[in-house]
Specification:
The chain is built from 22 helices and 11 strands. By secondary structure, the chain is an alpha+beta fold.
């Protein structure tokens, strides 16, 4: 898009472009999302930025009406396989906060100077500025959803000091932390990532949620990594309520159907009736463990209600990003519909189910293991094998939370496990052991910034891992939107191989969505 077309989007308040770019008004010193309801500024007073961090770096503060820091992420970063796209996915996962710019550069295979230069050249902001914008958003969420002390929030959001926290909040929001807390959006507010408490009828007590706190147990062999700490963080709620925003239509029923069909008891559970289901799962996070809950909505309201129960509040950004990937919330359904809707074969499917998503993964290692043990299996058998694997090698929660009892097994534990008591045939156990070994020793990376082509090549080289499984892992664990699974099995795959090559090429770069549309056509209920 050029600047004239961007301004047209601003004039029309086109929500399709929220997160794709930001605009700032030089006369007021604020920056907004394209759909901001405020009076449209004159063209000569408008500047455009690729990221919120770039607008903040230019001295603009976030609009209090449209809350541009809470927009869905750009689908461009999921589609791109270059260093900028990979870096953006890693920054979103919190790598800069945990490992610094040097750690980000090592994961990308570039020098820190090269990464800084490329991000600045294309986005107008370096990795530190991008991570800082993310920390500020996390801090705002904690200020507006908890009664925690500001000092606790500062460190939970990833700031190095309270002064840095205060200075950042003043610079980005033109407000003090106290004033920002008082400006919490109401229950009917359209914008913002703060959820309504009344959206969770039944309360936390109905789900057996665990209070978040400071001190997770060390993540060692045979030790649980999620436990009720000795004392909760003062003012912390029983879980942090969030709104996970998305753009365009969202086929929530289909994605909840898909997750319900393939869920593994103990690690995941889906309760309730279609239209009002609650998906819950355990999460293994850098600072400890957690439980995530996402509620299905029968109304397309622009976000999913989510609640995160964390042992370490520093994991808030990472946990929310992983749930966004699982539910494919940064997708661009407008671009997908434009590309696939013109195909005679897919067009009717796109029209019938607008906003169909391609589920990602909350844990790439877990997804890869599940894909291997599920090769050629029906959903029922895959669940049975997965449940046995979790019971034998998973880490038990100190206290069960509803149907959640375990964390999924670590790949290091599976690499050395006999696996004799599992259902897969000997060749399946061999494939599982080979995968777990290469993941445990670092020979294969499935993190958000991994090279997707190289990862699929490495997966195909493993004994017992077929091409379809390697492609499935690339599609879900690595979030690649352009994977076409050519599988004629009507129970498990889309009959994409029957489509002419020219037609399949025309589906790029959204062939993962084509695969899911074909799956839904074969499995209308998705359950």
């Amino acid at each position: 898009m050029n600047e004239d077309s961007r301004y047209e989007a601003v004039c029309s308040r086109d929500a399709r472009f929220d997160g794709q770019f930001f605009f700032a008004v030089t006369t007021t010193g604020i920056y907004c999302r394209p759909s901001c309801p405020a009076v449209t500024p004159k063209r000569r007073n408008v500047r455009f930025f690729a990221t919120a961090a770039a607008a903040q770096g230019a001295g603009f503060r976030a609009c209090r009406r449209c809350r541009p820091d809470a927009v869905p992420g750009s689908a461009e970063w999921n589609a791109r396989a270059d260093v900028v796209g990979r870096a953006m996915r890693l920054i979103g996962d919190g790598v800069v906060d945990r490992e610094g710019v040097a750690g980000l550069a090592v994961r990308l295979g570039y020098s820190a100077r090269q990464v800084q230069r490329q991000l600045n050249a294309e986005l107008g902001a370096g990795p530190v500025a991008l991570a800082r914008a993310q920390r500020a958003h996390t801090a705002r969420v904690l200020l507006q959803t908890t009664h925690m002390q500001a000092a606790d929030i500062a460190f939970a959001a990833g700031f190095a000091s309270v002064r840095q926290f205060n200075d950042t909040i003043r610079e980005i929001y033109a407000s003090t932390p106290t004033a920002l807390r008082l400006a919490r959006p109401g229950a009917t507010a359209r914008y913002g990532s703060v959820a309504r408490e009344d959206a969770w009828s039944g309360g936390d007590g109905a789900t057996g949620a665990v209070r978040p706190g400071r001190a997770p147990l060390a993540a060692g062999a045979g030790k649980a990594v999620f436990a009720a700490p000795a004392g909760p963080v003062p003012g912390a709620p029983r879980g942090i309520p969030l709104r996970l925003a998305y753009r365009g239509a969202y086929a929530g029923r289909e994605i909840f159907d898909y997750l319900q069909r393939w869920h593994i008891p103990g690690v995941e559970e889906v309760t309730g009736e279609p239209g009002a289901r609650l998906y819950r799962r355990t999460l293994r996070l850098p600072g400890g463990g957690g439980i995530a809950e996402v509620r299905e909505s029968a109304v397309d309201q622009g976000w999913l209600e989510c609640r995160l129960h964390l042992c370490e509040l520093r994991d808030l950004t990472t946990a929310s990003q992983r749930m966004r990937r699982l539910f494919d919330l940064d997708a661009d359904p407008y671009a997908v519909a434009e590309r696939l809707g013109g195909c005679p074969r897919l067009g009717p499917l796109v029209t019938a189910r607008p906003g169909l998503r391609a589920p990602g993964s909350a844990d790439p290692h877990e997804l890869a293991v599940r894909a291997v043990i599920g090769q050629g299996a029906t959903p029922r058998r895959a669940r049975r094998v997965g449940e046995a694997l979790v019971a034998a090698y998973g880490e038990a929660l100190p206290t069960a939370s509803g149907g959640l009892t375990h964390f999924f097994p670590r790949v290091a534990a599976l690499a050395d496990a006999p696996l004799d008591d599992l259902d897969p045939p000997p060749e399946g156990r061999g494939a599982l052991r080979a995968l777990a070994t290469v993941l445990a020793d670092g020979g294969l990376s499935l993190d958000p910034g991994a090279d997707r082509v190289e990862a699929e090549r490495s997966l195909r080289a493993l004994p017992g891992v077929d091409p379809r499984t390697a492609g499935y892992i690339r599609m879900r664990a690595l979030g690649d939107p352009d994977v076409l699974l050519a599988d004629a099995d009507t129970d498990h795959g889309a009959d994409a191989g029957a489509a002419p090559e020219a037609e399949r090429d025309a589906w790029r770069p959204w062939r993962s969505y084509a695969t899911h549309y074909l799956w839904v056509a074969r499995q209308p209920s998705h359950v």
